[in-house]
User: Which sequence fits this backbone?
């Protein structure tokens, strides 16, 4: 099944219902489908094997996604926040391609060989051209639906391949067709080049839910748009949620229509989700864990799980607020030992492996699935006796001290309980005696003594997990999708320690 069929089905079923909305206006499902067909004809007439999207949120994004599918071309949204040199290198890798770019971004990639640049305005005009809608389109046989480039923090970005079958398998297995009511509206503020941005288009379209786009995330703008559009559903990353709660209080704005708030893309501090549940007691919270290579979500901590954990006196149940829930029923998930074969039991930490139709596990020209379909996520984690999955972070981030594996998240959770700690990142630094030592960077209120913080950790964990190097900052570095840039801190602290 091709992704563009999701829009066609919705156009046939609820053509007059509004599909995509911004402050400038909106499109119905019927209009969106007709314009996507016109956009596909426009792409078909131009040279380029791939459609690249270089711009902010808005209706042009889903139109370009579906038009690319109808034209039989892979769709590649790119990170416009990259430096010009890096962005041009990435665009060159997509050649021959057609680049749909916001007006202020087109000049940044001008002159890249093998690339045809179209402004967003020109693309939108082509979608409105009725002559394009009558064009004969080729059979959309291209199996690759989307190419998403990784952040490339450890080298050149890799192009994750998501095929039509992967994406539609995820959508159909997690969303009921036309299940959304006419009053439902989803607020999307994650950037187009994130897997959450892609899945929001596909699941929202298939369910029949109106999508309101925020140009780019800002907490005050998010709250005001959610209030004005009577938003019922939204997805955020952990760093967004705490800022949204702050903005609601500062603006004195409530969100009475909000019913469901999902979050993912990074580790959610337990204190933040507890604060959110107190502030928004009638909202259904969902923690969704997934990867680009798995077509988005593979495990979910649902609303009932949240409420049961939040209200429980049992520490094991309460701890599930820090989990990502249980795997989707359409997937298989295992925790494996370092040999990649031995399956571990409850509460044994290892690498998370997953298998299922939605799992692409593929980079351009490089398949990462095993012969029997398993994908190694490179995430460390464990499951409890009831199958709840706890993600400890990337395997690359696990600290190995004297042969003992230490999860940064475990130490971070303890430090966040200290009343003066506002944000924290734990990582390993080289150590001649133990291989690595535990270090941390913190944002604190006031000036807590390192001895006090060390005793705080030692009393709740043990001495081997107590940080030995401390770094106090005004803020920690995150990328635009809310992912903590732990490697940046580690590199900076390594240089600082080496210079001492």
Assistant:
């Amino acid at each position: 099944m091709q992704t563009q069929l999701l829009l066609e089905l919705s156009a046939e079923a609820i053509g007059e219902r509004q599909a995509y909305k911004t402050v400038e206006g909106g499109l119905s499902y019927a209009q969106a489908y007709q314009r996507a067909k016109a956009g596909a004809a426009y792409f078909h007439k131009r040279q380029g094997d791939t459609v690249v999207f270089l711009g902010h949120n808005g209706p042009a994004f889903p139109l370009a996604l579906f038009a690319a599918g109808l034209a039989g071309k892979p769709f590649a949204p790119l990170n416009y926040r990259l430096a010009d040199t890096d962005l041009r290198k990435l665009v060159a890798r997509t050649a021959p391609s057609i680049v749909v770019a916001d007006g202020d971004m087109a000049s940044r990639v001008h002159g890249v060989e093998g690339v045809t640049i179209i402004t967003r305005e020109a693309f939108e005009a082509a979608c409105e051209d009725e002559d394009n809608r009558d064009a004969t389109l080729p059979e959309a046989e291209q199996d690759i639906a989307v190419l998403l480039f990784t952040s490339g923090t450890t080298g050149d970005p890799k192009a994750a391949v998501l095929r039509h079958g992967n994406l539609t398998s995820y959508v159909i297995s997690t969303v009921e067709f036309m299940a959304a009511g006419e009053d439902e509206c989803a607020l999307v503020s994650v950037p187009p080049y994130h897997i959450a941005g892609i899945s929001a288009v596909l699941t929202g379209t298939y369910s029949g839910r109106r999508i309101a786009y925020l140009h780019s995330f800002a907490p005050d703008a998010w709250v005001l748009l959610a209030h004005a559009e009577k938003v019922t559903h939204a997805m955020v990353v952990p760093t967004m949620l705490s800022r949204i709660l702050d903005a609601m209080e500062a603006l004195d704005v409530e969100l009475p229509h909000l019913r469901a708030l999902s979050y993912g893309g990074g580790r959610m501090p337990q204190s933040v989700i507890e604060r959110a549940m107190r502030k928004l007691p009638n909202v259904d919270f969902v923690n969704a864990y997934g990867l680009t290579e798995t077509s988005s979500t593979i495990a979910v901590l649902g609303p009932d799980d949240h409420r049961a954990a939040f209200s429980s006196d049992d520490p094991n149940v309460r701890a599930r607020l820090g989990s990502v829930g249980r795997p989707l029923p359409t997937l298989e998930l295992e925790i494996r030992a370092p040999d990649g074969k031995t399956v571990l039991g409850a509460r044994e930490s290892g690498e998370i492996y997953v298998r299922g139709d939605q799992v692409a596990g593929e980079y351009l020209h490089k398949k990462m699935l095993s012969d029997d379909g398993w994908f190694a996520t490179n995430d460390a984690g464990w499951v409890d006796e009831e199958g709840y999955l706890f993600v400890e972070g990337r395997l690359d981030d696990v600290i190995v001290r004297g042969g003992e594996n230490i999860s940064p998240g475990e130490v971070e959770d303890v430090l966040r309980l200290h009343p003066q700690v506002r944000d924290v990142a734990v990582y390993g630094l080289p150590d001649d005696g133990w291989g690595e030592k535990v270090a941390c960077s913190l944002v604190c209120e006031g000036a807590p003594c390192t001895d006090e913080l060390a005793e705080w950790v030692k009393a709740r964990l043990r001495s081997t997990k107590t940080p030995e190097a401390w770094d106090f900052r005004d803020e920690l570095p995150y990328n635009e999708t809310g992912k903590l840039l732990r490697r940046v801190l580690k590199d900076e602290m390594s240089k600082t320690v080496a210079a001492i």
The mean pLDDT is 92. The chain is about 35% helix and 25% strand. Residues 113 and 399 are 44 Å apart (CA to CA). Residues 4-216 form a domain with the Rossmann fold fold (CATH 3.40.50.12780).
